């Protein structure tokens, strides 16, 4: 009898525990959102969000460059190279130094307050008085910004540093902030970039729904001002699950748990070729992604041996660019061409293919040998390494890549092996990021792999500046922020200034060709491969109509002009 | 004055022990021999394989990203387009070398601290054992990671030493316990009375009596050294030049060989690591049986 009572009470206890578990546990978990109304995205957020303040450099998704909660005036379109309208509908230059921005009609904040030119001027002028803001450089190129009407803002460019490209760069990037909220935050002890904002209020089509260590979720704002202009974005919810690593995210894409992703996924084509999954990228064939940046081999042109341009040319011929493209970039890059201009996308119009063919290089070890032996008169030692007639041995040099950046590590390994086989001894070293960053800036390296700025409204100008301009670049041992190899050429500054000031495409092309010629003749850096600005892959299990090469209705990106994707896709 | 009858020295004891167990070894043959042959085969593959198969450069590019097995690359290629088969041979070498260095360092430190603590007793023992207990409580992988990051270059030797200096405490503890019981033996007293200095006593009268145990500890440390190297390499903290089984696994992980179905990139190195560990454990347990009659099966 006692035993039975004990059993019964034990059963009750167990039942009670189960009930508690069933009622309490879901309180901790987030709502499961209807799958056919939710777009799952990935590749931007790698830890729990700490702030949604768009002025903070490590801001949580989506507030860095996705125009979902906050919006910028324009969105850079990586496919066309143009600035697509967002908050503003037009940008026009009335003369060389005056730009007029016209805002869309009916713009308002998510709390119903109208968004006016005053908010735009306020946002940009913050960087005049707050030096901690990233866009402080904007005011080097701009003299004033004034609200000239109910919908218009006039921007007066600095005639001494005329550079419409850089100005456009910032107009297409800076999220506009509500003055009525941010004004109150200005006077506090905390600098604006350090303000922790967990309840962002923007002007965009989505509001923050919830966030946790596992996800950030957004909900559509059905009173969005842009509905009459752009229509209604298809997903009611957008969720960014937070993964620990790339492979977790890629597996989620493969399983259809992610709809669109911005991650490096090796051998992505296997998903549709071998597994027959409804996965796609921009191009159905190689290189699958739209190139947006150029990782380059930076050379310290002041080291004995490497100071000889013919040695650098031989090095350039020795590198197996197709192998780098096929392995380090998993076939996501065409073999790199010898130019600082991207041969595709928005920069293609400036790419001078004839000049590259005439003065450039490609993988050709025989040609490297010919340069070393015939043109330089170098002799090969018994160890397989060449010695110049003046006794300089070509190596050992050290080529560096950042530890953990797998595609770059792979590229530099291949480069070093190619060079050594060609008779220029190159070893590799993979320091941690802070180490390589400091050594790069101080010029304390023989060779290293790094990029300059990617495709943007101011490219390729910014890339030429970064690679060739010696103005503002201190001597070796001091921190330089561009031109780490300390290249110098008398014609570069004037050409750069002319290229920056002009808006005429033909003149720009001519000037960029001249700059590229200086690059080709002096070889301070060697392009190793191409990389997309954003990786872009989608799975059409739940949503269809994603843009791609044959359906180019929106660019292959989620950030900046990538917001256009939300209006195109449809639930299955 | 009559001379104190001299007992057998430690070395003689050990040899006698070996003689006694020689017959027993034949009883243990299957397991011992299997472990030995397996390890021997792996060693042979690592040391002579490159010459036999004429594949002497594990870094040479022979194909593209994860090419499947073919006539040129018998076990396919890795993410760099390098031959996996060649890398396996060189990987075994590196892993074993690091294991041997780590095992030696850990055993030496463990035996030194254990015997000194166990023999001297008192304050010295307290301090040394406190140190050992502190090191035991800190997860060795944390110290390993910190040490690996602290070194600018991580050569084979550096890696071996780093692993060795974090894995000695268990040996030290066990050796101390053995020493504590050994120091009360008569032959130790006799040697002490005859004026042998402490270190000499430890070296000649204590250590030889537990040499069997030390050999087993070394085999275990060797095994753990190899596995620790693989763990560190998989975190990207392996040797900075050359290839090891752990580094092969690290790249296979980074380049998502599991998702992309490139089994040849992760199964062979995993299998070899398992085989090495398995053969060493077989050897260790069979040696244990030889020296410890109570473990023998009828």
Main sheet: strand order of chain A:
8-9-10-1-11-22-12
Separation of termini of chain A? 61 Å
Portion in helices of chain A: 25-40%
Q: What is the CATH top level name of the largest domain in chain A?
A: Alpha Beta
Looking at the structure, what is the overall shape of chain A? globular
Strand content of chain A: 15-25%
Tell me about the largest β-sheet of chain B.
none
Most extensive chain contact?
A-B, 26 and 20 residues
Quaternary structure annotation: heterodimer
CATH superfamily of the largest domain in chain A: Dipeptide-binding Protein, Domain 3
Low-confidence stretches of chain A: 24-28
The DSSP helix count of chain A reads 17
Mean pLDDT reading of chain B: 85
DSSP summary: helix tally of chain B: 12
Task: Assign a percent range to the helix content of chain B.
Answer: over 70%
Secondary structure: number of strands of chain A: 24
Write structural notes for this entry.
The complex is a heterodimer of chains A (572) and B (298). Chain A has 572 residues and is of the alpha+beta class. Chain A folds into three domains: 176 residues, D-Maltodextrin-Binding Protein, domain 2 (3-Layer(aba) Sandwich); 106 residues, Dipeptide-binding Protein, Domain 1 (Dipeptide-binding Protein, domain 1, Alpha-Beta Complex); 242 residues, Dipeptide-binding Protein, Domain 3 (Dipeptide-binding Protein, domain 3, Roll), CATH 3.10.105.10. In chain A, the strands form seven sheets. A seven-stranded mixed β-sheet of chain A has the order 8-9-10-1-11-22-12, with helices on one face. A five-stranded mixed β-sheet of chain A has the order 18-17-19-14-20, covered by helices on one side. In chain A, a hairpin with a 2-residue loop joins strand 4 and strand 5. In chain A, helix 15 runs antiparallel to helix 16 and helix 16 packs antiparallel against helix 17. The longest helix of chain A is centred in the first third of the chain and has 27 residues. In chain A, 48% of the residues are buried. Chain B is mainly alpha-helical and 298 residues long. Chain B is built from twelve helices and no strands. Chain B is elongated. The N terminus of chain B is likely disordered.
